[in-house]
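Retro notes (design track)

What went well: tokenization of the new backbones is finally stable.
What didn't: we kept losing track of which sequence belonged to which structure.
Fix going forward: every design gets posted as structure first, then sequence, in one message. First example under the new rule, 158 residues:
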């Protein structure tokens, strides 16, 4: 009887411990993921990252350590995606576009949901090649954010 009671108490105690914590709601942001709060958003930099002079890589001009880069230091973004035309770029030229559209990147899957028609470009700075309509799960090749840094404007690439 005492042994049964001890097992029952142990089970009940473990049950209370595991149900008192909402473990599934705690999610650490992925490296490069956009997070948002009240009237602010930020890029989560979780590891040391190189800074470049171009969204395609180009020359490394510096590096930054783990930190949060807030919206007033994020100016534009480029996404390189796989399309029916091959690899193309989507340009986001304002902080508002970056905030709104980068939230639809699914980092573990490396996909993005295109939530409105977007122009597609041949290169990160190139001419318009076509457009892509709203759709889910577009395969992501590269994400580049232009930020203010200690070396001036620089590109942070994922």
């Amino acid at each position: 009887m005492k042994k049964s009671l001890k097992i029952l108490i142990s089970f009940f105690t473990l049950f209370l411990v595991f149900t008192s914590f909402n473990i599934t709601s705690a999610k650490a942001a992925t490296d490069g993921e956009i997070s948002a709060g009240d009237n602010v958003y930020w890029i989560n930099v979780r590891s040391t990252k190189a800074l470049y002079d171009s969204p395609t890589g180009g020359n490394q001009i510096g590096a930054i350590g783990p930190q949060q880069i807030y919206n007033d230091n994020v100016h534009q973004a480029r996404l390189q995606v796989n399309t029916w035309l091959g690899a193309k770029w989507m340009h986001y030229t304002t902080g508002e576009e970056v905030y709104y559209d980068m939230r639809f990147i699914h980092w573990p899957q490396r996909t993005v949901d295109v939530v409105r028609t977007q122009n597609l470009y041949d290169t990160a700075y190139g001419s318009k090649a076509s457009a892509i309509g709203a759709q889910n799960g577009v395969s992501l090749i590269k994400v580049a954010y232009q930020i203010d840094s200690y070396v001036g404007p620089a590109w942070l690439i994922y």
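Added context from the reviewer: The radius of gyration is 21 Å.
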